[in-house]
Every structure is written in structure tokens, then in C-alpha cells.
Amino acid sequence: MKVQFRNSENKKIIGIMNIVDKKSPQITIIIHGYSSNKDGGSKITADLLKKNKINNITIDLDNMGESEPEFEDMTITRYAETIYSAVKYCRDKGFTKINIIGTSTGGLSAMAFAIKHPIINTLILRSASASDAEWFKNYVGGDEGLAEWKNKGYIIYLSPKGPKKIKYSYYKDALRYDMCKKAKEIKIPTLMIHGTKDSIVPIETALKLKKNFPKAKLVTIKGADHSLGIEGDYSQSQKLIVDWIKRHN
Predict the structure, then answer these.
(1) Phi, psi of 207 (to 5 degrees)
(2) Do 218 and 194 meet the contact criterion of CB atoms below 8 Å apart?
(3) Strand partners of residue 58
(4) Which CATH number covers residue 66?
(5) What local confidence, expressed as pLDDT, does residue 35 receive?
(6) What DSSP character marks residue 72?
(7) Pairing mode, if any, of strands 12-18 and 2-6?
(8) CA 234, CA 237: separation in Å to the nearest integer?
(9) Pair 46, 58: CB distance under 8 Å
């Protein structure tokens, strides 16, 4: 069913909640990647959990879906605050064990949330970004591109919904979240899943991130891309996710 709640800025956040085990105190919040929404890969994960009798909720972090926050105004900090609002919503509904699945930048945002609010049961990171600042520096062409971005105030990002502005404030905020350094602050049991053929967040990023993660288990999937698929087959990552959640029930 479709649900809604407010984030810390009183903006409406829209989600889809699947309650398939009314007796369970556990629910899993699914966080999409950058410029995606709850109806993309998140829905595939939600359907997987639903099939396995695991309560779940997918949310739109910004207006790339149905939620109110403007895409161009969002930052990792604001995404993390929206995740907190989703956790609070689930706790208010009576769920006491809350898991988070974050994909790519959604994983980075989930880590940022977990550092500030170590109140969740477990964390699952799918092809997670460790530093959006580093990624965007490469995206704009290095120091020269960063200087131009700062001077202009924004860049144009080619999103799935067409060209979108990204303000320089996103980069400034992202500098605060180098998870290869900050992951040591996350004491929550964490499963990291990464494909060896991820061309967006290279496998080397996951290996580096794992080194400072106290309670993280890294599983690499040979031949898998950023979506964790191997020629459209997602069964390996799907089994890992379901088994991990059931183990931490």
C-alpha cells in the first residue's frame, strides 16, 4: 500500500509498504540509488522480500519519484535525514527491528544515517558508493571541472528523467562523507555485495571500504555489474540478501 510521511523539512515522502508478516517486529527499508526512485530496482528487491515473507518499504528520496524534495536541492545529509524519517515512521508503526538496504548512493546515504543514528538492526549495501565527492570530481573532469562547477553554482546531470541541475552544495556536502575513513564508526552488522565488473563503483572501492568496516562482510559476485546482475541474472545477490535478513531476524 502507498504511504506518506514528512521529513525533517516538512516535505512529503512517498513510499510503498508491503506488510506480509503481521506478527514480525522486523521491517526492511529499501533505499534507491542516485537519480532513481522506488519504482526502479527497489521494486525488484521489494518483490523479492515480499515473496519471502519479509516486511518492507520502498521510498522516494526526492522528486525523481513522487516525494516532494527537489532533486537539485538534495545532499547526502538530506538523504540521510529522510532515511531517519522513514525509520521513525516504521518505529511509530510498531516495528522494533529495522533493516536498511541501500544501493549505490543510497548505500552511501544509509551509511551516513547509520553513523549518526546507530539504531537499526542490520545494514545491506548493494554496489555502495564510498565517496560521491570523488565520483563527481571524476564526472566533471577533475579540479578544473570542480572550479567551473563552483563558479557557475551548478552542473547539468543527464538523469533517467532528462537533464537535471546539481548544485555545487551537493559536492561540498559530499566531502563530509568519505566512508573509507568513516566506516569505522559503523558498528552495525553489515553485508556488502559488489560485482567484479561494476563500471560505476569499481570493485576496488568495496575492497578499500571493507578494510575499516568493523562488522562488515563483503561478498563479491564474479562477473556482476553495478545492478549485481550477470547477464540479467540476479539470483546470487537476491539469495544473499534474503539469507542475511533471515539470519538477523
Answers:
(1) -65, -40
(2) yes
(3) 16, 30
(4) 3.40.50.1820
(5) 95
(6) G
(7) antiparallel
(8) 6
(9) yes
Task: Tell me, yes or no, whether 129 lies in a domain.
Answer: yes
DSSP letter string, 104-160: THHHHHHHHHHHH----SEEEEES--S-HHHHHHHHTTSHHHHHHHHHHSEEEEEET
∠ CA 72-73-79, rounded to 5°: 110
Is 56 within a domain? yes
The x, y and z cell numbers of residue 108, run together, are 552511501
Residues 110, 123 contacting (CB under 8 angstroms): yes
Phi, psi of 72 (to 5 degrees): -70, -15
pLDDT in tens, the chain (249 residues): 999 999 999 999 999 999 999 999 999 999 999 999 999 999 999 999 999 999 999 999 999 999 999 999 999 999 999 999 999 999 999 999 999 999 999 999 999 999 999 999 999 999 999 999 999 999 999 999 999 999 999 999 998 889 999 999 999 999 999 999 999 999 999 999 999 999 999 999 999 999 999 999 999 999 999 999 999 999 999 999 999 999 998
Biggest distance spanned by C-alpha atoms of the chain: 56
pLDDT at 160: 87
**Which cell goes with 166?**
546539481
Helix axes 132-139, 143-152, angle to 10 degrees: 90
Residue 167 lies in a domain: no
CB 68 within 8 A of CB 11: yes
Give the sign of the dihedral formed by CA 111, CA 113, CA 116, CA 119.
negative
Q: In one letter, which amino acid is 155?
A: I
Q: How many domains are contained in the chain?
A: 1
Which residue has cell 579540479? 143
Domain for residue 153, yes or no? Answer: no
What range defines the domain where residue 21 resides?
Answer: 2-135+178-247
